[in-house]
Design a protein that fits this description.
Layout lengths: L1 H4 L10 E3 L3 E8 L5 E4 L10 E12 L6 E2 H10 L3 H13 L7 H5 L1 E11 L22 E4 L7 E2 L2
Parallel strand pairs: 2-4
Antiparallel strand pairs: 1-2, 3-7, 4-6, 5-6, 6-8
């Protein structure tokens, strides 16, 4: 079940950890974005298969274009059982989401596309703890999206 795999709200290193030694990291950028911020030296480090999803999302203040987070979350709830909804609500609350929060209501998002990249491939540009000098940790850095185009994978 995908809700059991969603580790981000629980402050997991990766957004999703799936069965079979797979993990998924999701980053959003504006359509014209050229880089993504990686929060730590552990975020793109995984012993199995790690996929980095880059989602290009346009942020609007008008309901004429895009959908509010409240609308998106409501649609997701539709296909869930009562116990799944309870778990979903708990995970959303840990992320700070509330149906009544102004940003959830007054901002609208439009999906402009998504690409997946094999972040576990040899040569993928990333920092990992074992590559850092002793005593260095808590590193945040940016990855230039043009540098990962060779690592794109089909979905």
């Amino acid at each position: 079940e995908i809700l059991d795999s969603w580790k981000g709200p629980l402050r997991g290193t990766h957004d999703f950890v799936l069965p079979g030694g797979r993990a998924v990291e999701v980053k959003t950028v504006q359509p014209s974005g050229t880089n993504v911020t990686i929060a730590s030296e552990d975020q793109l480090s995984f012993d199995g298969e790690l996929t980095l999803h880059i989602c290009r999302v346009l942020d609007h203040l008008s309901p004429d274009s895009g959908r509010s987070l409240v609308s998106i979350v409501s649609d997701l709830r539709q296909g869930m059982s009562p116990s799944q909804i309870d778990k979903f609500e708990l995970l959303l609350s840990l992320e700070g989401f509330e149906d009544t929060h102004e940003n959830a209501i007054a901002r609208f998002f439009e999906n402009q596309g998504r690409k997946a990249y094999d972040a576990s491939a040899q040569g993928f540009p990333k920092l990992v703890q074992s590559d850092l000098p002793h005593g260095i940790h808590g590193v945040s850095y940016k990855v230039d999206l043009s540098s990962i185009s060779d690592f794109a994978r089909d979905e």
